[in-house]
Amino acid sequence: MQKTLESLTPLEEGSVKEFYHQLYGLRRIYESGAQDTVVMHQKTLLYSSQAMGPVKLTLDHRESYEVSRLGRVYDIEIQGDFVLITFKQQDEKGETEYEQYMGIRGVKNVQVLNEWKEKQYSYDKERKSQSDYWVYEALVFTPKHKVVISSSTNKAEARTLCDISYFHFDDILTTVHLKTREQLPNYHSIYNSKQHSAASLASWSLLQMHQQFQFDHQMITGIYAGYPWFFQLWSRDELISLGGLMDLARQLNDTALYKNIKSILARHIKSILADGTLSNRYPHSDLGSIDAFGWLAKRINDFLIILKEEKKLYDLFEIPELLLWYKLLKEGLVKAKEHHQEEGLFKNGFNETWMDTSYNDEGRTGFRIEIQALHYAIYDAIILLGNIVDSPEVHDYADEQKQFRETIRSRFLINGRVIDGFSQDIDWSYRPNIFLAGFVAFDLFTRNEWKHIAVEYLEQLMTPWGGLSTIEASNALYQPYYTGQTNESYHRGDSWYFVNNIAAMVLHQIDPHIFKEAIQLIAQASATDILDLGLAGHGSEISSAQEQKAQGCLAQAWSVATYLELMSALYPLYD
């Protein structure tokens, strides 16, 4: 993925007084009263303005993870109301590494600036990452009422896209607007107005990250982990996010969306590695994800239950497909036991869980509560599929799962306290992984046991603003504020919105009355993040524990997806 355009800046209209996030685009209103609107459509940016003077176009062409470097060359050709900008990235020898073309139509009074300026990005600086970049001030132009900017690796295509978009400008805007409205559920059952608005935006955000991708000359459906950095298919993130996509499919009764969910699950179930894990991302990487297989099983279980309830199971599946999935799950469990099981439990290595960074600790090696629960969920999916296909082995798997449950309880439940894990020593730290365990394998403990567990963990982890810290405040590793890319706070204090949402769902399942205050505090905090903080309409990755902020990746798929699941749990569609 590449960045191309840095900014469009009106020069005589004063500062921006108001922003309007229109879901399909952004409208800006300036001190002068002038307005402009920016809408993205495929490879084209559509820009419209009212009573607008000159506008400066600034470019910053580079790969997404690339810092500014020498060898960036722009060539600008003006042909009436059309401008062609050719970008070349050259190496140290002056040879071209790649070229990109940008076509612009609908401009007049074009003045070439051809100036490089240094720019500092404050959020990157706060995160302790590269924050100083050089950007290219290319042009000043007066916009006609409508301007289009198209990008391509092919010069002819850039011009063709420009022409088509310019002459069908209004039609494209209408189509984009209507498509956006049609995609969003009305959430009529959510009576809390703030949560209702947040749910609408969360559904929009998740749909932005649910895309079609081209890999190896074939189209694949999937969910980006997040913007602006995680534009890959990360197995764990994608599978956790599928719950929200299932909720959208059910809300909209969208057959195409159901088929896309099935396609994502099929891709993962056919990608189980030889050691019983999934690759941590797609396309394949050599690093496995110890918990992604369990999330796959959890989402298969959820999906099949929804299809049965909606009477759609045999609309989407034929018996041979169900038999294949059953076979692949069983084979995956055998592999997982061969490579990761010791004394009846599943062991993970350094930084292999979702808490995959370390700082002055052991990286959660050993046996961890949510890893046991996720492998327990594999049995749930096998048993459900086995019953659907009428397999005689179901009773054997049920007996094996029962024994697994007793082993988990005997090692993790100590004097009424569920521990986070153990290796050579017991880890008595309080971490919110207990709620992940409850979400995927609630019947590991009785409801009364869950009540005691939840009360104790909430006392240790609940923040005043409505999140859960990732370790208790009294722990020596605890960091109250986000420390950026140094990882000191990442799993040692920072509150993760997806975990918070999952915790609220578990609390609702335990007792919606006893935990009503905590549930609503979490739900309102997530709504605040989506509506008022970070990137408009998206869900942030994390917040500091001490004070609610939008931090980390500012458009994270699993944050909005689990929020949609939470809304579905609190405000059922059919109640």
Structural notes for this entry:
With 575 residues, the protein is an alpha+beta fold. The chain has two domains: 2-181, no CATH class; 184-559, Glycosyltransferase. Strands 1, 2, 3, 4, 5, 6, 7, 8, 9 and 10 form a ten-stranded antiparallel β-sheet that branches. The longest helix is centred in the middle third of the chain and has 22 residues, at 319-340. The protein is globular and about 75 Å long. 41% of the residues are buried. The mean pLDDT is 94.
Descriptors for this entry?
globular; 575 residues; alpha+beta; five-stranded antiparallel beta sheet
Give a quick rundown of the structure.
The chain has 575 residues and is α+β, with helices and mostly antiparallel strands.
Helix and strand arrangement:
Elements: E1 2-10, E2 16-21, E3 26-30, E4 35-41, E5 44-50, E6 55-63, E7 72-79, E8 82-90, E9 96-120, H1 122-126, E10 132-152, H2 155-167, H3 169-183, H4 193-209, E11 210-215, E12 218-223, E13 226-227, E14 233-234, H5 235-252, H6 255-269, E15 278-279, E16 281-282, E17 288-289, H7 292-309, H8 313-316, H9 319-340, E18 341-342, E19 345-348, E20 366-368, H10 369-388, H11 394-412, E21 413-414, E22 417-418, E23 421-422, E24 426-427, H12 433-440, H13 447-461, E25 495-496, H14 497-510, H15 516-532, E26 542-543, E27 555-556, H16 557-570
Antiparallel strand pairs: 1-6, 2-3, 3-4, 4-5, 5-10, 6-10, 7-8, 8-9, 9-10, 11-12, 13-27, 14-16, 15-17, 18-19, 19-20, 20-23, 21-22, 23-24, 25-26
